[in-house]
Design a protein that fits this description.
The chain has about 150 residues and is α/β, with parallel strands linked by helices. The chain has helices at about 20-30, 85-95; strands at about 10-15, 35, 45-50, 55-60, 80-85, 100-110, 110-120, 125-130. It contains two helices and eight strands. A four-stranded mixed β-sheet has the order 1-4-3-2, with helices on one face. A four-stranded mixed β-sheet has the order 5-8-7-6, with helices on one face. InterPro entries: Glyas_Bleomycin-R_OHBP_Dase, Glyas_Fos-R_dOase_dom, VOC_core.
Length: about 150
């Protein structure tokens, strides 16, 4: 138990892009990330952005035409989640920007958590939530519960 690898924090996520410029614009204009200096010794195109205590490392795909774009927004797909101050303000901004999104609501013990899901230009999913409403309650290693739902 504990921290066997002596981890300190999440440093960055790395995302492959069809268009580096389009992705930089999205992460700056929609999510508020700031471009930061990237080491010049890399021999491939990319950009580093920083915000909210984490980095986003964008990597230009060598074969952008072969990258598949996801169409449907599926909240159960891989994603990164950000907490926000006002879900209403986020949803209004997404609508104003013409960004397609899906709403979800999680309820646990009388507590409600709102979620908004949308894609970046390459189909990577982003969640915005008020997840801080839901307390983090750790289990002991042997006391975790996995809930499996029956197949439909």
């Amino acid at each position: 138990m504990g921290n066997p690898l002596h981890l300190k924090s999440l440093n960055h996520i790395s995302l492959l892009c069809k268009s580096l410029e389009e992705s930089i614009d999205f992460y700056e204009d929609v999510l508020g990330f700031v471009p930061i200096r990237r080491p010049g010794s890399f021999n491939f195109d990319g950009a580093w952005l920083f915000g909210f205590g984490i980095g986003i490392h964008l990597l230009q795909s060598e074969n952008p035409e072969k990258m598949q774009k996801k169409g449907k927004i599926n909240p159960k797909d891989n994603h990164i989640s950000f907490q926000c101050e006002s879900m209403a303000a986020v949803e209004k901004k997404l609508k104003d920007m013409g960004i397609q999104h899906v709403r979800a609501l999680v309820e646990e013990g009388g507590i409600q958590v709102e979620q908004l899901f949308f894609h970046d230009p390459d189909g990577f999913m982003i969640e915005i939530c008020d997840c801080d409403n839901l307390p983090v309650i750790p289990f002991g290693r042997r006391n975790r519960t996995i809930v499996l739902l029956p197949e439909p």
